[in-house]
Every structure is written in C-alpha cells, then in structure tokens.
Amino acid sequence: MNNSEQQPQLIDRFGRKVTYVRMSITDRCDFRCVYCMDEEMTFMPREHLLNLEEIVFLLRAFCELGVEKIRITGGEPLVRRNVDWLFEQLGQLKQSTALRN
Predict the structure, then answer these.
(1) How far is CA 100 from CA 68, 74, 95, in A?
(2) Cβ-contact 60, 93 below 8 angstroms
(3) Does residue 4 have a pLDDT over 60?
C-alpha cells in the first residue's frame, strides 16, 4: 500500500483514532457489583443477544478499521458457552488484521 492509499480508520467525534474496543459477551453476572447492576436487574432476552459468530464479525470489522486491542468483558465472560471458540477466532484475527492484544 503506498502513501496515497490509506486504510480506513475509526475516528471518534474528537478526531482521535480508535484502537481499543471493549466487547461485552454476556449481560449476566453472578457478582452483582453495585456499579454496573441494579438490585432489580432486567436482562435482555437471549435471542436479542449477539451470537458468537456475530461478535466475531463485528470484531473483525473493528480490526480491519485499525483496532489493535480488544478486551472481552461482560460479567464473567468465561461462563458464555463456547467462549473458547471465540478466543480461537480472535487469535486468527491477529494474523490477518491490526489486532495485537
């Protein structure tokens, strides 16, 4: 790619390049921390949550736009079924995109 061809980038409303994304993969948590969960929390129906393939699709798009770091969050993300598959897919993104961590 020469200097006249620039790769698309995510830019926030303050003109800063976005290189870091936090992706919540579950809305359920056993910790019930006061700062993020109300005592009478209403959860989204599971069919409204993104499946793992949709999450990978979004994260790939972010990485193709210059995101270098992804943090997986959401309560206790390791309780999400097949989360190991998601991590394998993220590992593959490191080979084909700007993703580093």
Answers:
(1) 5, 21, 9
(2) yes
(3) no
Q: Please say whether the beta carbons of 25 and 55 come within 8 A.
A: yes
DSSP, collapsed to helix, strand or coil, labels residue 6 as: coil
* Residue position matching structure tokens 């990485």: 63
d(CA 16, CA 35): 28
Two tokens, residue 100: 């580093």
Pair type for strands 69-73 and 20-24? parallel
Q: Are 79 and 31 in contact (CB under 8 A)?
A: no
Contacts of 45 (CB under 8 A, 6+ apart): none
pTM over 0.85: no
